[in-house]
Amino acid sequence: MAQLNEERPVIFLIDDDPSVREGISDLLRSMSLTVQAFESAQEFLDSQRPDVPGCIVLDVRLPGQSGLEFQRTLGNSNIELPVIFISGHGDIPMSVRAIKSGAIEFLTKPLREQELLDAVQAGIAYDRARRAGAGMLAELRERYESLTPRERELLALVVSGRRNKQIAADAGLSEMTVKVHRSQIMRKMRAQSVIDLVRMADKLGVSSKA
């Protein structure tokens, strides 16, 4: 049960209008969603946020730092939560700018409840996928770090498509030694095939040696 609670998504709502915060919070909570509401971007940055999937519902016009300026701050702070903009004064250039900067949606007030709910669910799904991808990449890096320096060198040769005899000649090893190292690489990386190993190397940014 504790694990389920840890993974319960949270929507972070940032709007300086108390009535908007209350209305959106009530709507989202009526759908059994957890909401944390803030009246400013700085209040959000100063808060202790749970490390769970979620998204940010962000007003474009805020006191102090605007929503669009805050969007840049999020990127510079490595906060990768998806952003849904809401605005009572939105125009096409503003919405284009927001989307180009990475926002997943730009909604105008008065908000249509279903549009907001759909956007929030899309944001949560996007963040879950991002977190899963980041977790898989972190695990791949751990596997790669378990390789010896010689195994990392040979990995680059293996994913280039070279045969054992060619790798042996390039690395100055016997073909039998290469076979042993290759087996160890496959085991440590948990690769089922060379194709699988090539995909892993590509995700890790390990370039094959020409």
Quick recap:
By secondary structure, this protein is an alpha/beta fold.
Strand order of the largest sheet: 2-1-3-4-5
- Cα Rg: 24 Å
Q: Which CATH C-level class of the largest domain is it?
A: Alpha Beta
| Beta-strand fraction estimate | 5-15%
Principal-axis shape: elongated
Give your account of this protein's structure.
The chain has 10 helices and 5 strands, in the order αβαβαβαβαβααααα. It has 210 residues and is of the alpha/beta class. Strands 2-1-3-4-5 form a 5-stranded parallel sheet, sandwiched between helices. Helix 8 (164-171) crosses helix 9. The longest helix is centred in the middle third of the chain and has 33 residues, at 113-145. The protein is elongated, with a radius of gyration of 24 Å.
Note the topology:
Layout: H1 2-6, E1 10-14, H2 18-30, E2 34-38, H3 41-46, E3 54-59, H4 67-76, E4 83-87, H5 92-100, E5 105-108, H6 113-145, H7 149-158, H8 164-171, H9 175-189, H10 194-204
Parallel strand pairs: 1-2, 1-3, 3-4, 4-5
Helix pairs in contact: 7-9, 8-9
List keywords for this structure.
Arc Repressor Mutant, subunit A, alpha/beta, 12% strand, 210 residues, 57% helix, 10 helices, five-stranded parallel β-sheet, Rossmann fold
